[in-house]
Amino acid sequence: MTQSSAAITACGIRKSFGDQVALDGVDLVVDQGTIFALLGPNGAGKTTLVKILSTLLKGDAGAATVAGFDVATQGADVRESISLTGQFAAVDEILTGRENLTLIARLRRVTDAGQLADDLLARFQLTDAATRRVATYSGGMRRRLDIAMSLIGNPPVIFLDEPTTGLDPEGRLEVWHSVKELASQGTTVLLTTQYLDEAEQLADRIAILQEGRIIANGTLAELKQLLPPAKVEYVEKQPTLEDVFLAIVGATGTDGHAGNDRNVGTDE
User: Fold this and answer.
1) Domain with 98 in it: what CATH number?
2) Is residue 245 part of a domain?
3) Which of 59, 151, 154, 237 has the fewest CB atoms within 10 Å, measured from its CB?
């Protein structure tokens, strides 16, 4: 991975709120067209870093670029190149799914907003619910609609801040599928999560953020190599009643022939 192929770079990012240190010298590189997971518990600094990278917050020190633009000096260019989906779906529940998409498309001055809305509804498996008010959507459907809205304008970089928080297992799987689709079509995705399985399922690379510092960064295979070799232990298997019965009478039947009948106490 080289800096020239990076969609996102951060070097020495620091941020404090009073005496509370949120980020303490964060470095990372996210390659174009990949999914990068920032994994850590609540309070680790994940959302703070996303806000700095998306120009919603200024860092105290360090430098960062997104889509080739400096977040401190080229904020407008950064914002034109990204989309940010927060921890809660930012959809209008009064409108239908199609109306939500059409509204955002018009605000972004996209030509043929209706056709774009229909295309996104199909892409995110929401066509059947297109004319329903979003208030009737499940959590997974709302999140998929939210991500679909973030794609309007074809941003090369998308930030997803804990995209499956509060979703049931089915909803999480729906969102996972949508995120994988984004990367497969060339979009760079940086997502934050506190779910280990989510990072494992989705990410090309994973950075573990703890108390404002990245303490590990690599592919899943590379991170696994940080652990010592697995210890193999042998556990004695306890026999079942079936094992005991077959050992006593299962080798031969009562007539002296091999028997496979496992029914006990059958009169003939």
Assistant:
1) 3.40.50.300
2) no
3) 237
176 CB-side CA count, 13 A? 16
What pLDDT tens digit does each residue of the chain (268 aa) get? 445 579 999 999 999 999 999 999 999 999 999 999 999 888 899 999 999 999 999 999 999 999 999 999 999 999 999 988 877 778 899 999 999 999 999 988 888 999 999 999 998 889 999 999 999 998 888 888 988 888 888 889 999 988 888 777 887 888 888 888 888 888 999 999 988 888 999 999 999 999 999 999 999 888 888 777 767 777 777 777 667 666 766 554 444 444 444 444 444 4
Q: Distance between CA atoms of 67 and 265, rounded to whole angstroms? A: 76
Question: 53: which residues sit within 8 A by CB, 6+ positions away?
Answer: 8, 10, 64, 66, 71, 159, 190
Give a yes or no: residue 94 inside a domain: yes
Amino acid letter, 76? A
Q: Is residue 236 part of a domain?
A: no
User: In whole angstroms, what separates CA 189 from the centre of its chain?
Assistant: 9
Query: What residues make up the domain containing 8?
Result: 3-224
Nearest CA-CA partner of 36 in 227, 217, 174, 224: 217
The number of domains in the chain is 1
Residue pair 182/128 in contact (Cβ under 8 Å)? The answer is: no
Instruction: Tell whether 244 is covered by a domain.
Output: no
**Which residues, other chains included, contact 28 with Cβ-Cβ below 8 Å and sequence gap of 6+?**
8, 9, 10, 36, 38, 207, 214, 217
